[in-house]
Amino acid sequence: MWKTVLLLIITLLAAPILAYIMDEPPSEEQKRIIHFLGIVCLSNIILCFVVSTLTQNYSQVDKLWSIMPIVYSWITAWQGGWESRLLLMASLVTIWGVRLTYNFYRRGGYHLKIWEGEEDYRWSVLRQRKEFNSPIRWMMFNLFFISIYQILLILLFTIPIVKCVNGNPLNIIDWVLALVFIFFVVVETIADQQQWQFQKNKKRNPEKYNGFLDTGLWGIVRHPNYAAEQAIWIVFYFFSIAATGIWVNWSIIGCILLVLLFKGSSDFSESLSSNKYPEYEKYKETTPRFIPIKF
User: Fold this and answer.
1) What's the pTM?
2) Is pLDDT at 71 greater than 70 in this prediction?
């Protein structure tokens, strides 16, 4: 886990340097919007850390994962003068966010007492490991990785919309990207629905169903929902290319960090599944992780 965290931090530091070398820095208007969004982001960091520390529920970031990109996108559209591309991008993020928020809601992620709700089972497992059994170590992990890093990441994978401010006129490439974006939202919706239905059936009849889902989209890749989520934000970055003509620009860091995060997250989840279900190792051998190609 520490190796994954270290890799993410190194990338967080190195990617902006590389992008700035290959790209021009943000304009004054873009800097103003980033400053505005940064204040909102900082408020979320403080809120998540304080609430998670007081309640011992460390899934506070999960509650914001599908909501804050909508907020950031519409703030940018507003601050950017309601340009056509910004409106299109904000609308797409809203479609993605509403769908994902509903999926999190039906899994018990939200509660009338907003600080409560289902906690990601992986945090409980992680807290029991020797490197995190110290309260101070866990508090530092909660501060720097769960609260700061993940909340900052939400802003970073949404930041390509800021790069689009004052960009080229909306064109056919944007509409093609919009269709691809919607396609991956549909894929993620189907994957989540298949997992939802499987878990419901498993609770009703645990003897009939295997310990994990390996049919439908889950028979093509092991994490179709993760794959679609990464693809969605890579496509979102491509809007900044359509707006500027620059293939590698400073807004690329978000989708890079997201891919690395999902790599580490899936590694951890699969280690737990392998320990719980002996058949999972065979599933890993026969089914690719994210891309439906066996390397």
Assistant:
1) 0.91
2) yes
